[in-house]
Amino acid sequence: MSTALSEAFGSTATVVAVKTLIPWGFLILIPAMAATGGSGFRLARGRTGGKIDAKRKRMIAVAANGILILLPSAFFLAARAASDTFDTAFYAIQAIELVAGAVNITLLGLNMHDGFAMTRRRKARR
Fold this sequence. Notes:
4 helices; single chain; mainly alpha
């Protein structure tokens, strides 16, 4: 969101600030994602099938997307922005990053939806 808003409405200085601050957010995001994934695996231990398997597959895709595309892209874009290099490579990687981010948000939303559905069913059985 910050990338899209800074590009659409901000100055070059705003884009540089956003791009150089995003990697610092990983200090919070990565442990939070690890805790979320860990708690999900703990809650699902011993259970398989249906929504559990779908959630596991999605989390593997989210993690792979983050490690292979989002992290390297963010560092590349931060370095380019810090050196005021807004060239074709910058915008191509940014487009890839935005698509990968949208995919991750979609997958995480689906996992949240399935998690709520599973919780509702568990509460109804009690």
